[in-house]
Amino acid sequence: MIQKIALVGFGTVGQGLCEILAAKEKELLEKYNYQYLIVAVSDPRFGTAYNSAGLDMEQVFNEVRSDQKFTTDGCPWDSLEMIRNSNADVVCELAFTDLNTGEPAIAHCREAFATGKHIVTSNKGPAALAYAEMKSLADKHNVDFRIEGTVMSGTPVLNLTDGPLAGCSISAVKGILNGTTNFMLSEMEQGSDYTAALAKAQALGYAEADPAGDVEGYDARAKVTILANVVMGEKLSITAVDCTGITALTPEDIMEAKAENTRWKLIGSVTKSSEGLSAYVRPERVPLTHPLAGIMGATNALTFKTDLLGDVTIVGAGAGKTETGFSILSDLLAIHRAETILPENRL
Q1: Entry pTM
Q2: Rounded to whole angstroms, how far apart are CA atoms 310 and 200?
Q3: DSSP-derived secondary structure for 80-98
Q4: Which residue, 91, 152, 97, is CA-closest to 123?
């Protein structure tokens, strides 16, 4: 069965996914019997291209590199019309993230579900602001809402808890969920002040021109919300997560922690106990003996507190073109595997 894919958004992640698919086309066929067609791409900058038999992606990339609207297989549809009318099986929702309204991504997801299409996304908006609704709509229409890339990019977090850690009860998740701030804190420990560390992060592409989402903790707060709702089955609102960023930390704070064998990290945490749910994002001094203390640069890490294995820590990339593109691929393959299991063999 050939998986037909539509992309909403053709920026860094969408292009990264397509590059991976092209590079690994033979390997994916041989290992997983996976075949695909990209039938549609819709992007505010380039317009919409659609071909029910599959787009010529080399031509699509040529037009994008020329910074021009799609002409080959150009189509007058907007993104919602493309989702509604295309013959795609899966919509990869890769539009920009809005953590205030979740739009336009939530509308894209609703349209996909209503027309019987799976959603795969790295967009934190729908997952953090409307997970219960999105999951309910997906289940109602017998399709998937897959969001692996929303927490630690391609490093498996949600798939880990749903796969290898299945059977364990997870009572707490704590970790470094924002690579930009972790990079900045690493730089500050090496002697940079906050302003210099931020400037370097921006120069390297880790931080946006407006870095508030990272340095104020909003990005990590969205990820904590997703972890609470997906991993722990809670109904946590993003506004219920206490959130403090790193902007008030000084070089003196950094050096004092270092002198006492600790290290500042922006920590995202969610804990479930008999007293209820506790969730926060804030700078914490982590002892150098803790696994999270050794995570430097733009790397992310999460520690799961389980009943059967104790603490399990996973470390990996939290951002990047290839890394996030891989997260989308992993979810596409999961859908493919589920659809190729014969009904009589399903659990």
Answers
A1: 0.93
A2: 38
A3: HHHHHHS--SEEEE-----
A4: 97
Q: Provide the greatest CA pair distance for the chain.
A: 64
Q: Name the token pair of 145.
A: 């809402």
Q: Find the helix or strand (DSSP H, E) in which 109 lies.
A: helix 105-114
3-state DSSP assignment of residue 326 = helix
- pLDDT level of residue 345 (50, 70, 90 thresholds): very low
Phi, psi for residue 9 in degrees, rounded to 5: 100, 125
Structure token pair of residue 25: 């086309």
Kindly report, residue by residue over 19-36, the tens digit of the pLDDT.
999 999 999 999 999 999
**Residue 261 DSSP code:** T
CB-based burial of residue 116 (10 Å sphere; 0-12 exposed, 13-18 middle, 19+ buried)? exposed
* Distant-in-sequence, close-in-space partners of 204: CB < 8 Å, separation ≥ 6: 183
Token reading at 225? 């919300």
- What confidence tens digit (pLDDT) does each residue in 38-67 have? 999 999 999 999 999 999 999 999 999 999
DSSP state of 149: H
Handedness of CA 246, 250, 253, 254 (dihedral sign): positive
Q: Does residue 248 surpass a pLDDT of 60?
A: yes
- Residue with structure tokens 């989308």? 328
Q: pLDDT by residue (tens digit) across 96-117? A: 999 999 999 999 999 999 999 9
Q: For 34, what's the count of Cα atoms within 13 Å in the CB-facing half-sphere?
A: 21
Respond yes or no: is residue 223 known to be catalytic: yes
Name every residue whose Cβ is closer than 8 Å to that of residue 11 and which is 6 or more positions away in sequence: 43, 94
Q: Please report, for residues 142, 179, 268, 295, 326, the alpha-carbon distance to residue 221 in angstroms, rounded to integers and kept in the order given.
A: 30, 13, 7, 19, 23
Q: How many residues in the chain?
A: 347
> Of the residues 223, 265, 272, 321, which is catalytic?
223
Query: Residues 188-233: pLDDT tens digits?
Result: 999 999 999 999 999 988 888 899 999 999 999 999 999 999 999 9
| 252-255-260-261 Cα dihedral, nearest 10 degrees | 150
Structure tokens at 75: 């189509």
